[in-house]
Design brief:
The complex is a heterodimer of chains A (114) and B (109). Chain A has no helices and eleven strands. Chain A has strands at residues 5-7, 10-13, 19-24, 31-38, 42-50, 53-56, 65-71, 74-79, 88-95, 104-105, 109-113. In chain B, 0% of the residues lie in helices and 58% in strands. In chain B, a hairpin with a 6-residue loop joins strand 4 and strand 5 (45-50). Chain B is an all-beta fold and 109 residues long. In chain B, the strands form two sheets. In chain B, strands 2, 4, 5, 9, 10 and 11 form a six-stranded mixed β-sheet that branches. In chain B, strands 1-3-8-7-6 form a five-stranded antiparallel β-sheet, with no helix packed on it. Chain B is built from no helices and eleven strands. The chains are: A mainly beta (114), B mainly beta (109). Chain A binds chain B through residues 31, 33, 41-45, 48, 50, 55-56, 91, 97-98, 101-103, 105-108, and chain B through 32, 34, 42-46, 49, 88, 92, 94-102.
Chain lengths: 114, 109
């Protein structure tokens, strides 16, 4: 398997623009997680899905952030409008659930908002 | 109080020495405990996980868990320069994973 795939790997945008990050989990993994990593706050869980349904979005910082999982092989994280403080590395991870605890991380998307 | 606390380091050890990384957590209901390694510019990768009190060994790595003290540690024996990375402690409850800020380890040749 190719592992978790994320795109784009790098994104530079101007403040106020819409940003969409994409993730393809490992085939057969029922859980998908979105994380954000910054020097100041470390690695933070934003939201996670089970069987395409959002289970816990308490980590989503504000209404500017939204996430969807229209099918088992695709998820998006959207920021609209983007702000400089959203600059971070965004990771997607997947696993098969509580019986298989390891989360497999994608390579991340480095977002810079100017 | 942070949910998962780690000494940010940097921790520097000579090659061949034992590196000791520590982590404390606040949620007594935590079920599983993980150590991830993250090289600069890369994504986290799992090194060890532990569920029960005591020690768990895997090669040069030993994870130690003390739930009463809410403490988990990672020992790296015979440290190698390739072990130089940031080590993230993670605590899981009902598939909700919380990470510490990480400890940066440098192993000097």
């Amino acid at each position: 398997d190719a592992g978790v795939i994320q795109s784009p790997r790098h994104e530079v945008t101007e403040m106020g623009q819409e940003v969409t990050l994409r993730c393809k989990p490992i085939s057969g993994h029922d859980y998908l997680f979105w994380y954000r990593q910054t020097m100041m706050r470390g690695l933070e869980l934003l939201i996670y899905f089970n069987n395409n349904v959002p289970i816990d979005d308490s980590g989503m910082p504000e209404d500017r952030f939204s996430a969807k999982m229209p099918n088992a092989s695709f998820s998006t994280l959207k920021i609209q409008p983007s702000e400089p403080r959203d600059s971070a590395v965004y990771f997607c991870a997947s696993n098969t659930g509580p019986s298989s605890y390891e989360q497999y991380f994608g390579p991340g998307t480095r977002l810079t908002v100017t | 109080q942070k949910e998962v606390e780690q000494n940010s380091g940097p921790l520097s050890v000579p090659e061949g020495a034992i590196a000791s990384l520590n982590c404390t957590y606040s949620d007594r209901g935590s079920q599983s405990f993980f150590w991830y390694r993250q090289y600069s510019g890369k994504s986290p990768e799992l090194i060890m996980f532990i569920y029960s009190n005591g020690d768990k060994e895997d090669g040069r790595f030993t994870a130690q868990l003390n739930k009463a003290s809410q403490y988990v540690s990672l020992l790296i024996r015979d440290s190698q320069p390739s072990d130089s990375a940031t080590y993230l402690c993670a605590v899981e409850r009902n598939n909700d994973m919380r990470f510490g800020a990480g400890t940066r380890l440098t192993v000097k040749p």
